[in-house]
Amino acid sequence: MINENKLKVCYSKILGILRLTKENRYQYLNKQYLRSKISRGASYTEIYISTLILIGIGILSIKVIHDLYEMGLQISRGSYNISIEYFLGTALELIIGVEFVKMLSKHTPSSVMEVLLFSIARKLITNHGSMIEDLIGVVAIVLLFAIKKYLVQPVSFAALNTIIVNGTIGTKELNTNYGTQIDARQGETIAGIVSNLANLNNQKIEPGLEVILDNNKFEIYSMDVNLIKKVKISQATNI
């Protein structure tokens, strides 16, 4: 016999679905809604994996400390058998791991470039290839610097006194390279400033949100789930 309690539970779930309004049922089945949930889950998974990678890097960094200790002992005994290339290779591997975590958290072309630069630099420093291989590596680094300087622009000019910037760009970097005058004490990045001001004013962080700091108006231009992707900065009026 079927358990009566199980029947009651199933019946109550069916009634709950039927009682949903038409709008709620549409939202429940809406593809965009499902995509948003999947994207949010993927973002949390990235954070989880990044945390594991950082823990692994922290554990592996003990090896570098041990190598330094061995170097000190050998030098004190008048011998030195540890290869500097081996030591640099291990250290650069850890740096590449850190840059990879930064790439996962920032989601910017610039962070991808940094990972590639460190990877190529490690190969050039630690591996003794042919002259052709070294030349190809140097050319690759030059190309990456050129792409970063001329093609990957964190700032675009939308109109007079209006720019659109990546949310992850540093406040001091923006002030130095583009002549803006934004108080860096309010946040290390532009997204950080917008988030801090929104939380201070109890405002919901969403596309279109506007906050004002001194003579600058910040508007969230686009978001990636809960992350501020681009911010429009313009001169504030009627302050």
Mean pLDDT: 79
Number of helices: 8
Question: Helicity, in percent?
Answer: 55-70%
Strand fraction: 5-15%
Low-confidence stretches: none
Which strand order do you get reading across the main beta sheet? 1-2-5-4-3
What is the gyration radius calculated from CA atoms?
A: 26 Å
Q: Write down the secondary-structure element order.
A: HHHHHHEEHHEEE
Give the termini distance in whole angstroms: 73 Å
Name the structural class. Answer: alpha+beta
Main sheet record: 5 strands, antiparallel
Write structural notes for this entry.
By secondary structure, the chain is of the alpha+beta class. It has two domains: 31-150, no CATH class; 155-235, Uridine Diphospho-n-acetylenolpyruvylglucosamine Reductase, domain 3. 62% of the residues lie in helices and 13% in strands. It has eight helices and five strands, in the order ααααααββααβββ. A five-stranded antiparallel beta sheet has the order 1-2-5-4-3, with helices on one face. A hairpin with a 2-residue loop joins strand 1 (155-159) and strand 2. Helix 5 runs antiparallel to helix 6 (131-150). The longest helix has 46 residues, at 31-76. It is elongated and about 70 Å long. The relative contact order is 0.07. The mean pLDDT is 79.
